[in-house]
From TrEMBL:
Protein name, as recorded: Uncharacterized protein
Length: 62
């Protein structure tokens, strides 16, 4: 299973790389990036839970 980084996170990281550290925009983009990463990890965690529940249900049915 390969981890795929979403395009929106990559785009924010590329923009962040061009900005000067400790500038106002740098701080703004780090907050935006943190929010996107948080939602992405939560989405992945929910998918994993759903997959685990489906696996348990299929084992019960057999």
């Amino acid at each position: 299973m390969t981890e795929i980084i979403p395009n929106n996170i990559l785009k924010i990281q590329k923009k962040l790389a061009t900005l000067q550290k400790d500038s106002r925009n740098y701080k703004k983009y780090t907050k935006i990036l943190a929010k996107h990463i948080k939602t992405h990890t939560m989405r992945e965690r929910v998918k994993a839970h759903i997959k685990a529940i489906e696996t348990i249900q299929s084992l019960k049915d057999e």
